[in-house]
Amino acid sequence: MDQFLAVLADGIIYSAWLFIAAIGLTLIYGVMKIVNVTHGSFYALGAYAGASLTGAWVARGLPVEWSYAVLLAGALAVALVVAPLIERGILRFMYARDEVVILLITYALFLILEDTIKLVWGVNPYFAAEPYALLGSFEVAGLPYPTYNLILVALAVVSGGGLAWMLQATRVGKLLVSVIHDPEVSRAMGINVGRYYLVTFTFGSLLAALGGSFTAPTVSVVPGLGVEVIVLSFAVVVIGGLGSLPGAALGAIIVGLVRSICVHYAPELELFVIYFVMAMVLAFRPRGLFSLAEPRKI
Amino acid sequence: MRRDRTPLLLGVLFLVVAAAGPWIPPWALFILTIAFAKGLVALGLMLFLRAGLVSFGQALYYCAGAYAAGALGRYLGVSDIFLMMAAGCAAAALLGFILGFLLAKYRGIFFGLLSLALSMILYGLLVKNEALGSTDGFNILPSTLFGVRPSQEWLRYAVALSAAGVALAAAYLVHRYLKTPLGRLAPAIKDNEIRVEYMGASARHAIHTKYVIAAALSGIGGALAATTVGHIDPDMSYWTTSGEFIFMAILAGTGSVVAPFAGALIFGVIHTTAYDLSPNTWQMFLGTSLLLLIVFLPEGLWSLFRRRKAA
Amino acid sequence: MNPILDARGLNKNFGAVTAASDINVAVEKDSVVGLIGTNGAGKTTFINMITGYLKPDRGAIHYEGRDITRLPPRDITRLGICRSFQIPQLYSSLTVRENMHVALGIVLRNAGLGGFFSTGEPRVPGYDAPVSEVAERILERFGLTQYRDQNAQVLPGGVRKLLDIALTMAAKPRILLLDEPTSGVSSEEKFGIMEMVMGAVKAEGATVLFVEHDMEVVARFAQRVLAFYDGRIIADAPPQAALADPEVRRYVVGGELHRMDEAAARA
């Protein structure tokens, strides 16, 4: 029973992290139909901004209790500056191209951003463990769990729930759904699709940056942080269905629990199993577990 | 009827390597050999690109070929370079044949993502596999040719020449393939797959065939790279490795079977010089080049040659 | 007399919509059959079932005595039943000549020729000449020679139609299915296209089924007319009789009565 609880707790925490990491990616795909590799870059940018700002904050002797706001501010700063630059500066001109080409463009941008991060922040690791340490730990089945992890879970729930509410209940959300279903028709109805793309890209990137920023206190922030995140996010999003919000949640839960089980019982399968599930879903239900019916082509 | 100059070009290239080789310094021969190895992978990618497909996981076969060659050396004590390449080719081709049944059904993003997932599966398996050295991988013995171990000074030349021979021969075979009706089908599949079916051909069969050929080529490349570098590790299957191959293929374009090797060589030279000059801006440079290529030269560098000919 | 194509008891439903209701058609070899009917009447569904794009819920289709009901489009094409498309399906980034080369290349491959191990220039079966020569011949017959180096996507509408049909006929089909061969084409060109096609058909010999909305074209070229309505065939007769049929006039032709009368008078 203890073992079971441990597996479950680990799984939930990992799922929360995966969900935060993946939700922006699926949102951007759903609205703009692009697979955005810079997603990993924003995660890394958020981590670096959050860690460096928090480090500076604490070094000045300012209250650690406010560091959570600092993490938030860091993520906001990088997302609000870099995302519009990318979208307006480059992506905007490429929407007519094939989706694979756009993916390669975002991959190129990812490479550029990786080194930009190195240039700005250097290659030495950043540590900003204060927000993490401040909250101490609690016990689950005799094992200590950092209370900080609950913040991650809370962040996942808030962002997922908030986004879902926004799409269903607000006017902006409903217009966004229209753009998701058919940009051409939306344009014809007078919706400024270009603006929605900009907002979506920025917001999705912000979510990635938040994920990086709030994870930063739990790891050492080093170059290459974004690399693994991208592929894992892909896996989660593909499993749930590209563009599906509930799908991202389901995908995150599946991957999180499966990984947790593996870590506890079959560690050598840990990395393999995630991509295996991704491949299986692609093989049998390429549109994901939450797919809509596919329209006929002729 | 324009005479086909490609076989001649391939032959000349081989002779150039053979003749000039002994005077080229070993580090340059190393780069050249790796260019042939990676060029083979890029050649395979070119086959897909012509049909409008991009594989984000070609590193799977590169790695599989490398580990097959490595296993041959580690467990059977084989070090003959041609046997290594044959083993890499066979292992990768078999894997490609099996996985091809699945992959040939997909197009666009899904083809790309599925191939990516498969390459990461191999990565995940290898990283955790203690017997094969997990993240460290393992070393490979220096190559022998037909039972003879070349002396240290001739080793690089011998390897480079073998690489050139195999790679250019493979390029010739691919060139021949591209002239068959099945080989010519690629641009048609890209443009209008439905029409292809209604003309009585199977797009899936064509893609499966190309997939196996590309896998085989990548396997040879992987084995060759492994034995040249002397070391293999799971990173050979990581998605960033696939990214490098894609860069080479896009740089080369789809115009000629020689182009992927040129693309790989350019990549190799730039990588060595740029990385030495400034390791922390290498990726930025790569990314910028890729972006410029996609935006301004989507047909690859080779299209520059073609435009000049037409003008 | 054995019909070359025999459809028996074809039924097809899409949810609540009946696209085909107990269709029975026997087509004689070398005949020319016109299929008429308003949009949604079932003509395209019928063609889609013959060519294997759709499978009927019930019923069977026999071609030269062989059951082809469940075969995929690719196999049906290889057996000799080829179709053209309402919206021309071309290889848009290839030139007209290259389009034809692809078509003939497939013909070669299906005959087992021109493979990896073959040497020399293979000769296309049915034409006994190399691909480039046959391509020129076909393009010339359809008046496409002047366009041969232009990319398919820049061609004008009528030319696209002709190319689509030329590609379909490259394989020398035994049964030719033309889906609205003159739609989207100016009225001056309509007859020209059909004349060209029928000329080619006469030279090679083939059974033709064509879907048409223009009654003049139907009256001029069809030997037999099948009128569709609501998934059923409501008339099966030579053009003059079919176009005079009151049910056909009511359900198929609608308000075009005076044009139709002219066509009937001319036929």
Structural features, described:
The complex is a heterotrimer of chains A (298), B (311) and C (267). Chain A is mainly α and 298 residues long. Chain A has a domain at 20-226. Chain A has twelve helices and two strands, in the order H-H-H-H-H-E-E-H-H-H-H-H-H-H. Chain A has helices spanning 2-32, 38-59, 67-89, 99-121, 130-134, 148-169, 171-181, 183-188, 193-215, 225-240, 245-265, 270-284, and strands at 137-140, 143-146. In chain A, helix 1 (2-32) packs antiparallel against helix 11, helix 2 packs parallel to helix 4 and helix 10 crosses helix 11 (245-265). The radius of gyration of chain A is 19 Å and the shape is globular. Chain B has 311 residues and is mostly helical. Chain B has one domain. In chain B, 74% of the residues lie in helices and 1% in strands. In chain B, strands 1-2 form a two-stranded antiparallel sheet. In chain B, helix 3 packs across helix 9 (203-229). Chain B is globular. Chain B starts with 5 loop residues before the first helix and ends with a helix. By secondary structure, chain C is of the alpha/beta class. Chain C has a domain at 5-86 and 174-185 and 206-266: Rossmann fold (3-Layer(aba) Sandwich), CATH 3.40.50. Chain C contains ten helices and twelve strands. Chain C has a six-stranded mixed β-sheet with strand order 6-9-10-3-11-12, sandwiched between helices. In chain C, strands 2-1-4-5 form a four-stranded antiparallel β-sheet, with helices on one face. In chain C, strands 7-8 form a two-stranded antiparallel ribbon. The radius of gyration of chain C is 19 Å and the shape is globular. The mean pLDDT of chain C is 87. At the A-B interface, helix 4, helix 10 and helix 12 of A face helix 5, helix 10 and helix 12 of B.
